[in-house]
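Case study: Two component regulator propeller.
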Amino acid sequence: MRRFLYILFFIFMQLSFAQNTLSWQGYFSFNEIKDISESSTTVFAASENALFSKSNISNTVKTTTTIDGLSGQTISAIYHSETFKKTIIGYENGMIIVINETDGSIIKKVDIINKQLAANIKKVNHFMEYNGLIYVSCDFGIVQFNLTTSQFGDTYFIGDNGAEISVKQTAFFNGFIYAATSSGIRRANSTSPNLIDFNQWGIVNSGDWSSVEALDTELIAINSVGYIHRFNSNTFIGFLQLSQPSADMKAENHNLFITTANTVYVYNNKMVLNRQITNTQVLDNTLSFSCATAVGDVIYIGTKENGLFSSTLSGNSAFENITPIGPVRNNIFSLDVSPNSVWAVYGDYDLSYNPYPLDSYGISKYNTSGWLNIPYEDVFDAKSMSRVIINPNNDNQVYASSFFSGLLKLENDTPTILYNEKNSSLESLKVDNYNVVDIRANATAFDKSGNLWITNSRVKNGLKVLKTNGQWGSYSLATILNNVENNSYGELVVDKNNTKWIATYREGIVGFNETTNTFKKMTFGTDVGNLPSVDVRALAVDTKNQLWIGTTKGLRVLSNVSSFQTESQLTANAIIIIDDNLAQELLYEQFITSIVVDGANNKWIGTSDSGVFMVSPNGQETKYHFTINNSPLPSNTINDIKINSTTGEVLIATNKGLISFGGIATGANEDLNSVYVYPNPVRPEFTGTVKIAGLLDKANVKITDITGSLVYEATSAGGTIEWDTTAFGRYKVASGVYMIFISAQDGGETKVKKVMIIR
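Here is what the predicted structure looks like once written out:
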C-alpha cells in the first residue's frame, strides 16, 4: 500500500511540476558563459545550466532556468534557428532541449543519452543548421535532428572503419559537409543518400582540429594548437598562428569571430582583420573569453566567470556587462537566512575536509534589492569561506568562516575584520614540513546569550567562542577525542540547555557544556552511541528537543538533549518505518549533508546524491522527496538547506544552483498581534490556498460564513495554516465574507479576521 501511495505521490509531483511552478524560485548564476547564438535582433547566451537572451530592440533580458523546465546538467552548446523559431540546447551528458518560441513549450530529448555508447563520449559540441536539419556534433560522431518534427534522424560514425570519433564542429560549403574532428577534417557530399556509410567521409587534412566554419566564399578551419587554415578547393593551407588555442569560431553577418582565452579576432569575409579585442580592453587581464558573436552592430563576448559583455562592433565604445545579476557561481557551499536576507559562501572542502585547491570567490547577499556580491579583494584575502551565519539579534552583523584564513566579520554589508591567529584565539594547524598559516574555522552557532561558538579543526583547542564583550575563549577537545589534531568538524548546534553539539569527521558527536565543564561522546557502535558512522555531517535540534544526526551512512535521533545531564553514555536510535509490510530504517546508508527543522517541526534533509527529503515531525511519513526528475532541483547533490522562519521559504543550495520551495511551515509567534490573511480578497483567477499566518503554535482556527456556519477548523503546527477555500474538502465555498476566529491553545488570547472570496 505504501509503495502505491509513493507512486501516486510522484505522479502528482510530476503533474504539479509540469503545470505549476509558482511554488519554486531560482537564484542562478549566469556568469559562466558556455556558448552563444543569435537571431537578427537578439543574442542568446547559455551559462552553466541556464539561459538568458537580450533583445537589441526592446533592450529586455529574459532568463530560462530549471524552474522553467531546463535540465540542471551542464550545457555545452546552444543554437537559435530564426527560420523555425526554436532554440536548441545541448548538454555534456548528451541531452538536447528544444525551446519553441511560438508556443513557449520546452521539450527534452534523451535519444543521445539512451544510445548504447560510453557515457563520457555523448557530449554535444556544436549545432549546424542546413536545409531544415540540425547536424549535431558529438564526441562520438554526428546526429541529424529534424527542426520541423523535433525528431532525430541518422547517426554518422565517421571515424576510421566506422569508429566513434570526436566531432567538434561541422560546416556546409559548396555542397559538402565538413567535420572538424580529433582525427582530421573529414567531408562528405551532402547529396549522398548513404551518409551513414563511413566510406562517404573522406579525410581532407589529417591532424587534430577544433573548428571549421564557412564564411561566405571562404572555408576556415583551426587546428588544436591554434593554427588558422584556409581551404583552397583541395586542402587547408596554414594562414596564421594564434598565440593561444582557439576556444570558439563563429561566422555571422559576413564576419568571422575567432575567440581565444584573452583575445577576440574579428575578420571580414576576405579574411582581413578588422578588429582585435583583448581582455584588458573589456575588463582586465584576469578575464577569460569563451565565445563571441554579433547582432547587427553590437558585439557580444562571453567569459568563463564574468558573464556576457557587449559593445559596438564598428566603434571603440566601452564594454558593458549585460549578465543578469545573481550569485557569483552556482556551487554555493553554505548559506544562512534571516527574515530579510540570504547570505551565501562558495568556499568548499572535499569529503576528507581538504580545502585545496583554495578558492577566492568572496561572499554574496540577496534581499529585495537583489544580489550584492562582495569580491575576494574586499574580504581581507579570506580564502575558501565554507560557512556563513547571521547574528539572530542583529541582522546587519554576519560572520563567515574561512577553512584556511580564520573568521570574517561583516557589519552593514562591509567586511570589518578578519580574525586569525594574531588577533583571536583561533589557531593554525601544525603539520611537519608544512609551514603555512592554515586556520580551519568552520561550523558556527550563536548561543542564547549571543556568544558565537566556532569550531577550529585539527588543533588541540578545537572549540572557540567569541563573546558579546569581544573577548575570546578556547576549549580543548583532547580529553574526549583520541586524535584531536587529525580531526575536522562539520555542524555545530546549541540546544536549550546551552549544550554544544559538535559533528566530527572521525569520532562521531561531541557534546559539551561549559557550565559543568562536561564532555560526552556518541560514536559508532551499539554500546558507545549507536551511530552508523563516525563521520557526522549534519545536526539539528527540533522543537521537541530531539537531536537529529546526519552521518555519511544514515540518520539517527537522540530522543532528548537533556539526557546529556543525566546519562553517562548517550545513545541515538534509528527511525524505523514500515514499507511494503517490512520494517526499514529511514534513510538507510544515505550520505546526509544537511538537516533543518521547519515551523511545524518537519525535517528537511539534504543528501549527497538523492536530493531532498521532507519528513514528518517523528520521521514516520515522507511528505516530499524532491529530485531532478520530479522538481526543478538542478542537482541531487545538496550542499545546504536553510528556512526563512517568517515566510517558510525553504532554500536549497546544490552544487548546480540555488533554488527555493515555497513552504508554509513558518515559525510560531509569541502572540497573535501579527496575524494576517493572504491573499485577501481571493479573486476568481486565484487557484491556490488562503494562508493564515502569524499564529501561535497550536492555535485553534475556525472559519465560518457570515451566518455562522462552520466551513473549516484546524490547529496550527507552527505559524501558518492553509485553507483550500472548501467546506471541509467537500465543495468550494460560495462568494462572500468569511470570518476567521483564532484562539490560543489555553484560550487566553483570541483574534478575529475576515477574508472575502470572489468566485
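For the exam, be able to explain this: Residues 2-19 form the longest helix (18 residues).
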